[in-house]
Amino acid sequence: MVKPVRVWDDVTPEIFATEIRPLGEPALLRGMVRNWPIVSAAIDEPFGAVRYLEKRMANGPLEFALAPPESEGILHYRPDMKAFTYSKRQAPFAEIVAALEASANGANPATIAIQSLDIESHLAGFLIDHPMPLLPQDVAPRIWIGNRAKVATHNDPLDNIACNVAGHRRFTLFPPEQIGNLYMGPLHVTPAGTPISMVHLTNPDLERFPRFTDALESASVAELEPGDALFIPYQWYHHVEALDPLNILINYWWNDALKDGGSPWDAMLHAIMAIRQLPAEQRRAWRANFDHYVFLENGDPGEHLPDFARGILKSSKPEDIDSMRSQLLKALSGQIR
Q1: Are the beta carbons of 134 and 210 closer than 8 angstroms?
Q2: What is the DSSP string of 152-217?
Q3: For a 10 Å CB count at each end of the chain, is N or C smaller?
Q4: Rama region for 324: left / alpha / beta (φ>0; ψ in -120 to 50; rest)
Q5: What residues have CB less than 8 Å from 130, skipping those under 6 apart?
Q6: What is the rounded distance in angstroms from the CA atom of residue 79 to the CA atom of residue 326?
């Protein structure tokens, strides 16, 4: 049985920083944004939240995803993997809202989803009335608006706080170590830039994907009501179900780790290119190198050296980072030629 995500009440910035984040696990922050005006509007009437947004939304067409009724709300690849189950359209916000309202009483409506809309660009004054006290003010939120939908299991190279504004959402979460049991899809063609699991969580084909049962053993689930928030740690996989005729979520992505050392994703792509095709005994040697120098399995790899001799092993000074970057650029430009 999938275990519930731990629930935290009355979370303060100090509790979040000193008790929740160090655990490295998802956390349901009960009632975290219950006092937001848009949440009050959502609770007052079924479509109150979109009425609130209509008064503030900038003019102009918005992009949204549209999936036909036969997709049953699943935003994924088609069975032949030559296209997605949805298409991208554009329309003014008022037209999208009208379509959501028209679909509200349908037994199997088309799926409509405005995804990852930048709030600062589209909703003037919204941030003043809807503060997020757990994060720095420069973390920009995004808004997601739609009806019932199922977003495939994926992860993000960022920490995430997802605030449920209207409707109910169910998150099913898997730790990063479950990647081998999630049967991830292509790296190069994805719905939104990050790979997704090929397993439909709500109706998994366990004959085709037998290891998914192992992933479920480590899964956790969070049921969010209006006003609740969910902390999703860096790279944790999550499947998202929007459960009501209208669902609105506002999320904050951020990464306060070292930013000038390059992209881990790019490093992995380079490793796929440079290491994966090597003979097994050579991959074994490089696995040991990565464990030692990158993942610090044996502690500080330069601890036995005098400080002046550590060079890039220390890799904390700007000049060390610049030295490594120069070496990489020189090596890659040589490969290109």
Answers
A1: no
A2: EEE--SSEEEEEEEES-EEEEEE-GGGGGGS-B--SSS-SSSS-BBSS-TTS--TTT-TTHHHHHH
A3: C
A4: alpha
A5: 33, 36, 37, 38, 141, 250
A6: 45
Cα 255 to Cα 29, 76, 99, 118, 224, distances in angstroms: 19, 27, 36, 17, 24
- Contacting residues for 326 by C-beta, under 8 A, at least 6 apart: none
Instruction: Indicate left, alpha or beta for 107 from its phi (over 0: left) and psi (-120 to 50: alpha).
Output: alpha
Q: Nearest 5°: CA angle at 259, between 256 and 261?
A: 140
Compute how many other C-beta atoms are within 10 angstroms of the C-beta atom of residue 240.
24
Q: Which residues contact 27 (CB under 8 A, 6 or more apart)?
A: 5, 6, 7, 8, 20, 230, 231
Q: Write the pLDDT tens digit of every residue in 71-109.
A: 999 999 999 999 999 999 999 999 999 999 999 988 889
Counting beta carbons within 10 angstroms of the beta carbon of residue 328, is it exposed (0 to 12), middle (13 to 18) or buried (19 or more)?
middle
- Rounded-to-integer distance, Cα 55 and Cα 92, Å: 13
**What are the structural domains of the chain?**
3-254 (2.60.120.10), 264-336 (no CATH)
DSSP one-letter string for 261-287:
S--HHHHHHHHHHHTTTS-HHHHHHHH
